[in-house]
């Protein structure tokens, strides 16, 4: 359980940063904020792949619901940031 909680901290931080960057980008339409949102969303998505040494595998083994919520959030943020 503690390994799962530690492993979700990185992707959760990237999801939060991506959300903040998207909010700022909606107020101040500057490409750097969209780039920050896209980068953090993609890093979260990649890190949540449930394979090998990635954090996604540890989170998936710990709690599949938490993994699914974080994975879907990172997919949505990645799509929104790339399509904006």
How do you describe this structure in short?
By secondary structure, the protein is mainly alpha-helical. It is 85% helix and 0% strand.
Low-confidence stretches: none
Number of strands: 0
The major β-sheet equals: none
Oligomer: single chain
Strand content: under 5%
Instruction: Name the helicity range.
Output: over 70%
Distance between the termini: 37 Å
Mean pLDDT across every amino acid position = 95
Shape: elongated
Determine the structural class based on helices, strands and strand pairing. mainly alpha
Reading the helices and strands in chain order gives HHHH
Number of helices: 4
Rg from C-alpha positions?
13 Å
Q: Would you write up a description of this structure?
A:
By secondary structure, the protein is mainly alpha-helical. The chain has 4 helices and no strands. It is elongated and about 40 Å long. The mean pLDDT is 95.
Short descriptors:
84 residues, mainly alpha, elongated
Give the arrangement of secondary structure elements:
Layout lengths: L1 H26 L3 H17 L7 H8 L1 H20 L1
Helix pairs in contact: 1-2, 1-3, 1-4, 2-4, 3-4
């Amino acid at each position: 359980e503690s390994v799962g909680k530690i492993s979700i901290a990185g992707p959760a931080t990237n999801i939060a940063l991506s959300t903040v960057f998207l909010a700022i980008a909606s107020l101040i339409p500057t490409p750097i904020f969209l780039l920050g949102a896209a980068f953090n969303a993609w890093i979260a998505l990649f890190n949540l792949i449930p394979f090998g040494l990635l954090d996604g595998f540890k989170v998936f083994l710990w709690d599949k619901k938490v993994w699914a919520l974080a994975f879907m959030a990172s997919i949505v943020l990645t799509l929104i940031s790339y399509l904006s």
